[in-house]
Amino acid sequence: MKWTVIGYWGAYPEKGEATSAYLIEQDGFRCLIDCGSGALSRLQRFVDVKELDAIVLSHYHQDHMADIGVLQYSWLVQNSLHHTKHKLPIYGHGEDESGFAALNHQFTEGIAYQEGDILDIGPFQFTFQRTTHPVPCFAMRIRIGDQVIVYTADSSFDQELIPYCSKADLLISECSFYHGQDAAKAGHMTSSQCGRLAASAGAKQLLLTHLPHFGNREDLVKEARREYDGPIQLAYEGWVWQG
Ligand SMILES: [Zn+2]
Ligand SMILES: [Zn+2]
Description:
- The protein has a single domain (2-242), classed as Metallo-beta-lactamase, Chain A.
- The protein has seven helices and 14 strands.
- The protein has helices at 39-43, 62-65, 68-81, 97-101, 161-164, 191-201, 218-225; strands at 2-7, 21-26, 29-35, 54-56, 88-93, 108-113, 118-121, 124-130, 138-144, 147-151, 170-174, 206-209, 232-234, 240-242.
- α6 crosses α7.
- The longest helix is centred in the first third of the chain and has 14 residues, at 68-81.
- The termini are close together.
- The structure holds zinc ion (2 copies).
- One zinc ion (ZN) binds at residues 59, 61, 133, 137, 154.
- Pfam families: Lactamase_B_2 (PF12706).
- Keywords: Zinc.
């Protein structure tokens, strides 16, 4: 299982980059996790857009799905050029009617998931757990055999995340604020809370992502390290984990 960071900013992308977007691959199956602002452009450094096999969205905030519309245009253009009628499945929760409706298009098909669902998407088994966020949002636990990746999506610190992240080979945690800031008010986590989550869950490695546009981001790693003694990495475009 290969995980590549495409976009890692919270809220908006810094120049030439993207907000939340990750590529997960196995045996030639390519799945995009979230599709934030700038994702379509940056994704093409790593994969041809028409070679995507599925997309899974955590929620409908723009920094996680802003590029769905232009991705649909890209599939329209590519299908027209190649005289094909390939349809791309886009998995999203069904609790936001207009958000979910936007996943349907001539060449994309929205497929609704719910908390607790166990979905086989290509070679990956996905399970979803609701997070604590101002809008419905779902963390993802992704398994192949005995390998597990957990992506928190957007969430404030929540005890229920601990068993969900249990023993993850790679924990990808949103890290929107620094130690001591009130992240919960905005539905997000601090660096220290990410570290505590990784330690409590017994995660083997921690990737900090959904990063803030202020402060010295290397401090996020130092602050998380006070809570967690495993390997910690700050996300950047092109960072790869291979299990
Ligand atoms: Zn976000
Ligand atoms: Zn959000």
